[in-house]
């Protein structure tokens, strides 16, 4: 398999080549870790990206904030603010999600054997202990999705180790997406209930139950498609459903359970779903 073995003087050159191909890159220190925040951004004084969980690029002049520092701008890569980092760099990293890629990081022989049995063949890159399997498409990143397997895609970085072998990248399969889906949380003791039509409330304006079904299905789809800020997306979906269907009495507990199930499949706990639902009810003044 093709693999780059670089000396420090070559890291910037490789980074510029990748950036020209549309791959966001940044330098890594020894140990495969990003450079720490500069003095301006230390302890998040800049109001930046705590734990690198906030989407979007880094706005600092130095390569701060982990994956969010990756860039395709040659002027940034060649800037004086980045010069010291490149002089100390031990490797080049890239943001797979920013390049439209998902990396299945297989950390040992057992993980590779599992992938060969359960995942479609795609381009592979040799690593120190295993392989990176590259797929075309993006998804949320997650560690330890199964023994020896990590997912690196959106809001994550991977070490650049070369172009690999195996032909073109295969489309991201459902089998990989399913690795990050958590088991739904146990049902809470207090049942989830839909708001009820208050005495003297208005009649249902919907001419057909199809309208309600379409609204629930759209909310489920919105939640399922979320790749970041899942909790905020769940709240927004709940708010949209309640604002349209919550006051006329047509919304049932079964509909609410469907929304909770969609959120649970994205990793939201039952408690978080309940809080989001209750907050949406309160926002719309429906708990009076």
Task: Walk me through the structure.
With 288 residues, the chain is α+β, with helices and mostly antiparallel strands. It has helices at residues 8-20, 74-77, 80-88, 109-118, 174-177, 209-224, 230-245, 253-265, 270-283; strands at residues 25-29, 33-34, 91-94, 101-106, 123-126, 131-136, 142-146, 149-152, 158-159, 170-171. Strand 1 (25-29) and strand 2 (33-34) form a beta hairpin. Helix 6 (209-224) packs parallel to helix 8 (253-265).
Largest pleated sheet: 6 strands, mixed
Q: Compute the gyration radius: what is it? A: 23 Å
Order of helices and strands: HEEHHEEHEEEEEEHHHHH
Mean of pLDDT: 82
Distance between the termini: 65 Å
Choose one word for the global shape: globular
The tally of helices reads: 9
Estimate the strand proportion.
5-15%
Uncertain spans:
1-8, 197-201
* Helix and strand composition category: alpha+beta
Helix content: 25-40%
Number of strands: 10
């Amino acid at each position: 398999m093709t693999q780059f073995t670089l000396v420090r003087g070559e890291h910037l050159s490789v980074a510029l080549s990748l950036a020209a191909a549309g791959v966001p890159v940044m330098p890594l220190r020894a140990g495969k870790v990003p450079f720490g925040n500069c003095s301006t951004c230390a302890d998040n004084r800049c109001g930046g990206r705590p734990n690198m969980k906030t989407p979007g690029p880094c706005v600092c002049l130095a390569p701060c904030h982990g994956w969010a520092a990756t860039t395709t701008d040659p002027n940034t890569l060649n800037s004086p603010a980045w010069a010291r980092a490149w002089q100390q760099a031990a490797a080049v990293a890239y943001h797979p999600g920013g390049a439209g890629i998902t990396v299945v990081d297989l950390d040992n022989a057992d993980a590779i054997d599992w992938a060969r049995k359960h995942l479609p063949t795609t381009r592979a890159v040799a690593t120190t202990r295993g392989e990176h399997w590259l797929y075309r498409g993006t998804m949320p990143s997650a560690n330890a999705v199964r023994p020896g397997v990590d997912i690196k895609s959106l809001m994550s970085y991977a070490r650049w180790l070369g172009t690999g072998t195996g032909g073109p990248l295969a489309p991201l399969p459902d089998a990989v997406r399913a690795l990050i889906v958590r088991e739904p949380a146990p049902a809470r003791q207090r049942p989830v209930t839909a708001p009820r039509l208050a005495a003297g409330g208005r009649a249902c304006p919907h001419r057909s139950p199809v309208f309600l079904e379409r609204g629930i299905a759209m909310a489920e789809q919105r939640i399922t498609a979320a790749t970041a800020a899942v909790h905020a997306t769940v709240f927004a979906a709940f708010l949209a459903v309640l604002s349209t269907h919550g006051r006329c009495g047509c919304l049932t507990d079964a509909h609410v359970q469907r929304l909770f199930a969609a959120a649970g499949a994205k990793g939201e706990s039952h408690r978080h779903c309940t809080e989001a639902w209750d907050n949406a009810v309160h926002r719309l003044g429906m708990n009076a």
